[in-house]
Amino acid sequence: MLRVDLAKAMPGMTLAMPVRHPLQPRRILLKYGFQLDAGSIQSMWELGVRTLWVNFPSLSFLEKIVDPGVISAQSSIIESVSRTFEDTQRQVSARLPYGEYTRAIGELVNRLIENPQAALFMGDLMGSGADELMRHSSTVTYLCLLIGLKLEGYLVKQRPHIDPARAKEVSSLGLGAMMHDVGVPKLSKQIRSRYNNTRDETDPAWREHPSLGYEIVRGHIEPSAATVVLNHHQRYDGSGYSGSSAPVLSGDRIHVFARICGLAEQFDRMRFPVGRPAVPAVAVLGAFLQPSLFRRFDPNVVRALFAVVPPYPPGSMVRLSDGRWAVVIEHVPRDPCRPTVQIIPNPATSSFANARLGETIELGTLSRTHMVIEHEGVDVSDLNFARRALLQEDVSKAAYY
Fold first, then answer.
1. 327 with 368, same domain?
2. Alpha-carbon gap, residue 118 to 140, rounded angstroms
3. Cα-Cα-Cα-Cα dihedral of 217, 220, 225, 229, to 10°?
């Protein structure tokens, strides 16, 4: 199986995974095994679908990474998020089915634990046609869980007054992340529109949404989940906010769950700026290596982000500096922009029906002139970064597990 940008999809390619409706993720638009034609490609484009998984017989080993059970569990989260914001806007927040939400989070966590090879952020499950608030909250929830599972030992160290088995449990983190922007619909349309246009984090009216959300969930969910809602905009260097009635926090005074959610939501907002084209993951990750942004977040959480978010996810197509096309087959955390790849035919001339893989290339063993230059239809030749001193301490060490 191979992840293909819809712009490069060709009639004759066969789906290796179902295509879900961007606004109704439990609804299947096209089933596994469907052979694409010009009409289906155009219809998906109009709905906002932007990537597909297609058959490539020699890449069946990637199925362990793209777990249908994980995707199904993610879809349940998306549906729950959608209902949450609809119910909040109807003033029925006290009756939100928090137990249902917790079960959905638990199912996703169990799936990820059962298949740790699938615990990589492979990209947004929803297309560009999805409601932005729903898309953002769903993505942040999933990313928080991936980071939390990577930092089990760190969670235990940060929560010393709780039994270790409970301290490393991430369901409350997921629930808090799922609800983190539940206060946004309580703001007027004018305030929301102004923020989406300006992205002005200093707007006093916008800064009230964490406190508004906290008032909705307080007493209905675990305190550790509620603090995520209240403090997801607090920053490690003390530059954040939670609303006019809440104190500014910094460092370890911010609950570790809120620190994780704060980073995840910042990553997603930078990756998908409202009203503008998506920014490549490699560019956003590179920005987090700059001291001005790095210092705003818990460095241990930043390191975990790099461990679970590949600039070029396995299964995705890339074009190399020598002009050849390749598929990423392995993420290399020690040098994220230099994955292991295998050469594939040019997607402009092949439906991949009988295609064969070419040579395997470990980019990290070659000179820096050998690199990825295109991904998801974007020229990334100037965006690749080397692993820097900020990330020298590997999150795989025992101190973090």
1. yes
2. 17
3. 0
* Residues 301 and 330 occupy one common structural domain: no
pTM: 0.88
DSSP string, 142-199: HHHHHHHHHTHHHHHHH-TTS-HHHHT--HHHHHHHHTTTTTGGGS-HHHHHHHHHH-
Q: Which of 73, 121, 123, 126 is nearest to 101 (CA)?
A: 73
**The token pair that represents 328 in the structure block:** 């990423």
Report DSSP letters for 303-317, one per residue. HHHHHH--SS-TTBE
Q: Which residues, in sequence order, are CB contacts of 14 under 8 Å at separation 6+? A: 33, 34, 35, 36, 54, 55, 353
Kind plus residue range of the DSSP H or E element containing 113: helix 98-114
Residues 302-341 have pLDDT tens digits of: 999 999 999 999 988 999 999 999 999 998 888 899 999 9
Q: Is residue 15 part of a domain?
A: yes
Identify the domain containing residue 171 by its residue range.
Answer: 68-308
Task: Judge if 301 and 255 occupy the same domain.
Answer: yes
In sequence order, which residues have a C-beta less than 8 Å from that of residue 300 and are 6 or more positions away? 151, 154, 395, 400
* Tally of domains within the chain: 3
